[in-house]
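Run: sequence + LMH73ZQ5 -> complex structure.
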Amino acid sequence: MSNTPLTEASTSRFVRIQEGDLDLQLHYNDCGSGDETVVMLHGSGPGASGWANFNRNIEPLVAAGYRVLLMDCPGWSKSDPIVCTGSRSELNARALKGLMDAIGLDKAHLVGNSMGGHSAVAFALANPARVGKLILMGGGTGGASSFVPMPTEGIKLIGALYRQPTIENLKRMMSVFVYDTSSLTQALFQARLDNMLTRRDHLENFVKSAEANPKQFPDVGHRLGEIKAPALVIWGRDDRFVPLDTGLRLVAGLQNAELHVFSRCGHWAQWEHADKFNRMVLDFLAH
Ligand SMILES: O=C(O)CCC(=O)/C=C/C=C(\O)C(=O)O
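>> structure
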């Protein structure tokens, strides 16, 4: 394997997908090579992307011999803009099917963060034969929290940031996003702000979508039992966006699931506890 570090630019790819009435250009990062492929699906925050969400998780999987694909969902980063008036989980699942068809990929393991978890579950429901294993962090939509008022404080702050994309609102959102806010650098804030502001069309479309349909991520709790794929559910005890008890609902509903809870961890387990997260994922995929 090459010792050249993987960069966003060197792994950046575009593909045109046609999936039913969905006809758009998607951006993705294609990292490493191997018999098995892991697709990573990012969350719904403004300025999010596959690379922003998973930059601490790519190298260990590639080093272990996996091909890693990061799909930028429609309406994020360098993928085409879209207004979503139905289920965004299903829209992303259709986009992923379109991407896999376009590049000739039959089957993949899916790692989903928050919205990415909702989308991975939607994909598994629609395309069971094309999923290996599922790794779900802070998402999956087995239903609303029984204990925490919804929408949560984090989701309200995301909405405010979409409507008013300022550095102040970004810092307010990020201050409840992770547990240890001292890990958030000026460079990270700046990169996120730049990502957000270069695609104001994405921000405006997200607001329009939420106005047209506030339930972008419907509850599929009643269908979780259809999913046979082994699932590793990973949550932050201190998640203020998608509360921990919604992770318990996933484990209760899925046919074959286990749960790991990190203390001192917010909504970004794969970034906040990257080393242990990566070891757990590798172990789960290998056995
Ligand atoms: O509304 C939901 O249930 C999903 C919220 C969500 O996906 C938030 C994710 C945020 C990020 O991953 C990010 O901003 O990087």
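>> summary
DSSP finds twelve helices and eight strands in the chain. Residues 42-45, 48, 53, 113-115, 139, 155, 217, 241-242 surround LMH73ZQ5 (CB under 6 Å).
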